[in-house]
Specification:
Layout: H1 3-31, H2 37-63, H3 68-83, H4 92-105, H5 109-124, H6 128-153, H7 156-172, H8 187-192, H9 197-200, H10 205-217, H11 220-232, H12 237-261, H13 267-287, H14 291-298, H15 301-319, H16 325-354, H17 356-361, H18 364-381
Organism: Lysinibacillus contaminans
Main location: membrane
Membrane topology: Multi-pass membrane protein
Length: about 375
């Protein structure tokens, strides 16, 4: 199996399901499971907390005892089994419990694949941006398919498409895997990666992690309420998918060129640009509550998300030893993609019912401090 192809295919498979989950899951809970926006925000927010706990403890611990292939397989199987529990669940309580269980397995697939990617970049010299762009392409395909399916067959197709996607993700683990990912961690490896505490002692790592926590958390309202916001603007469901995909297409274009476009840029410069782009994005949506401006703001996703993500991956790949990469990925996924997003999802849900625009504007409470932290620390820690 060609290492580059394997990574590209796995990114595609996961982000195909992510293109179902991220923009549509809250809307599915509201429309198909009859939850209110407030109830759905509580369910999804607590799911993000469960995701954070899983990525912080469950994923790094499991990664110390099984190889990358088996790790991905265990998580994919767990995600499929827990997703099926949604079928009999109709009450707020049952949906809350199932979402917690699902969030313990499914989102952990992301740091698992990212850890595989970092290992392949370090040891097999694959191009991260090239393979990651396939993930974004999978996201685009999923959003378009769901838009068409829901327009014809209704919102229940969101759930069944996720089941099909998870089965496909599980089947991917049966294919040939790069040899470097088949190595089972040794006792010595476990001792070297025994604790995440050593990460905090690395010069610059805590600061970089804090910055990406702020920048990624600032997408909370967009992820949870972007679909509902476009519905409130009376956008046809078919066009909602197309509008959401604008952001991902810009993300794809960035990742395709990232390995050559920003090779001379420091991580701090990338993070600074990401913070500026993110701040501009949320301010525009607040100031101009219409579809045209929302569409234009989607272009900034290449800065607010993709640039920040690439900066962190590049930083840990160049800075950390192989044994510590799963720990770093676990922290990143738990805190930046989980905990901070969860906290801001609660805030966004409360503000959305007051005024939808406020839920987006509130995100600058993260982006502005991120910009200031970069400016204050980039010379001191030389990142």
């Amino acid at each position: 199996m060609n290492n580059q192809r394997w990574l590209s295919q796995n990114f595609f498979a996961f982000f195909f399901t992510w293109g179902i989950f991220l923009p549509y899951w809250t809307g599915w809970l509201v429309d198909a499971k009859q939850l209110t926006v407030s109830e759905a925000s509580i369910v999804m927010g607590c799911g993000l907390l469960a995701r954070a706990a899983s990525n912080l403890f469950f994923f790094p611990t499991l990664a110390k005892y099984v190889n990358n292939k088996n790790l991905n397989g265990i998580l994919a199987l767990g995600a499929l089994m827990t997703a099926l529990l949604y079928i009999p669940s109709t009450s707020f309580t049952s949906l809350f419990i199932v979402t917690i269980l699902f969030s313990a397995f499914y989102p952990a697939l992301l740091p698992a694949i990212e850890s595989s990617a970092a290992t392949l970049v370090q040891q097999s010299h694959v191009h991260y941006g090239k393979s990651r762009s396939y993930g974004s392409f999978g996201f685009v395909i999923a959003v378009l398919i769901i838009s068409m399916l829901t327009g014809v067959f209704g919102k229940q197709m969101i759930f069944w498409s996720m089941i099909v996607g998870l089965i496909g993700m599980l089947m991917m683990q049966l294919t040939a895997t790069p040899k470097v990912l088949l190595a089972v961690p040794t006792k010595e490896d476990r001792e070297q990666s025994l604790s995440m505490k050593t990460l905090w002692k690395l010069k610059g790592f805590p600061v970089v992690l804090l910055i990406v926590i702020l920048l990624q958390g600032a997408h909370a309202s967009y992820y949870s309420y972007g679909y509902i916001y476009l519905e409130d603007l009376n956008v046809n469901p078919l066009y909602i998918g197309m509008i959401i995909n604008i952001a991902v297409i810009c993300e794809i274009l960035y990742f395709m060129k990232a390995d050559t476009l920003f090779t001379t840029w420091r991580s701090s410069s990338l993070l600074l640009l990401a913070g500026i782009g993110s701040t501009l994005r949320w301010v525009l949506i607040f100031l101009f509550p219409n579809v045209f401006v929302f569409v234009l703001s989607q272009i900034l996703h290449a800065l607010s998300f993709a640039l920040a993500h690439y900066a962190f991956i590049a930083y840990i790949t160049k800075t950390l030893p192989k044994e510590q990469i799963p720990n770093a990925q676990g922290l990143y996924s738990a805190l930046a993609m989980g905990l901070s997003t969860a906290i801001l999802t609660f805030l966004g849900g409360y503000l959305y019912e007051i005024s939808p625009g406020l839920s987006f504007l509130a995100m600058i409470i993260c982006t502005v401090p991120a910009i200031l932290i970069v400016l204050a620390t980039r010379k001191r820690y030389n990142y």
